[in-house]
Amino acid sequence: MYDHTELFCLIDDFCIRFKPIYLRNLKADGLIKRCRDAFLELSEIIFLATWFHLSHFKTFKHFIAFIRFYHRCDFRDFPSYQRINALVAQHAQAIAAFFEALLVKPSQDHIHLVDSTPLTVCKNTRINRHRTFRTSADRGKSSTGWFFGFKLHLIVNTARGIVSALVTAGNVSDVRALFPLFQRHPVQGKLFGDRGYISEFYKQLLGARQCEMITRARGNMPQPDFTAEDEHYMCQRNLIETVNSQLKDDLGLEHSRHRSWHGYIAHIYASLIAYQCVTIKAQVKPFMGA
């Protein structure tokens, strides 16, 4: 397993400054009336949600049972699985805020990769019976076929650290989500994507903000003349697919057992936090010149 002591210290240092502001905003918005101490501290809630994805457990229930048996003495109070699950969903905004704090800075070499991956919430045969995300999820089509759910859009640097992330419905095309994804955390330099990001309008829009969108052309379009450096990084663009695979296969990003929107968002951002904490990542090879 991951070094949970180092992870908790990182989260606790963040919560020392974040928690007073967070609770004050919740009270101002009318979401809570009193700031009472819970069984678990905010840092412990974020820690459990993140450590689950860094463990080898497939279900959160079995992970909590493991923590209760082997690490009960590490917590002042340890409520039931149902209560912990509710606390994680309740503090989804705090988990998302911690992920925003972990976002890496844009690469100094000004080279970034962009891509999206589908997040299926149920099988296609069960779409008509699905209730949890009936009003928020939608049908979409990826390179592997049709799906029902959401899309996760990512911008990563050459070290495969996440620079910006955005969750949309499944029917939102990659090019439509490009500018909102860029606006969350603007990058400068060159942004490499697949053919789903071909758009002269968005290319000019990003170009006005010192970001050059580079894609290969479709079969019925004239092929652009790439420089040796652009061709080098375009050939390595598929490395962002390993980010999606690591999130889904190793960190449990995608499953169909969600029962609420807040719990779903908490699950996604906890997976992204876990990825940011992983130290072993394949890096894009730098361009060494002709």
Topology:
Blueprint: H1 4-28, H2 42-54, H3 60-70, H4 81-90, H5 92-102, E1 111-122, E2 138-142, E3 145-157, E4 162-169, H6 174-184, E5 189-192, H7 200-207, E6 211-214, H8 228-235, H9 239-250, H10 261-277
Parallel strand pairs: 1-5, 5-6
Antiparallel strand pairs: 1-3, 2-3, 3-4
Helix pairs in contact: 1-2, 2-10, 4-10, 5-10
Commentary on this structure:
Helices cover 43% and strands 16% of the residues. It is of the alpha/beta class and 290 residues long. Strands 1, 2, 3, 4, 5 and 6 form a six-stranded mixed sheet that branches. 33% of the residues are buried.
Overall pLDDT: 90
What class, by secondary structure content?
A: alpha/beta
Q: Can you give the helix content as a percent range? A: 40-55%
Distance between the termini: 43 Å
- What oligomeric assembly is this protein in? single chain
What's the tally of helices?
Answer: 10
Percent of residues in β-strands: 15-25%
Tell me, briefly, the overall form.
globular
Q: Which topology of the largest domain does CATH recognise?
A: Nucleotidyltransferase, domain 5
Q: Tell how many strands the DSSP assignment holds.
A: 6
Largest sheet: number of strands, sense, barrel closure? 6 strands, mixed
**Tally of domains:** 2
Q: Compute the gyration radius: what is it?
A: 20 Å
Strand/helix succession: HHHHHEEEEHEHEHHH
The CATH architecture classification of the largest domain is 2-Layer Sandwich
Unreliable residue runs: none
CATH C-level of the largest domain: Alpha Beta
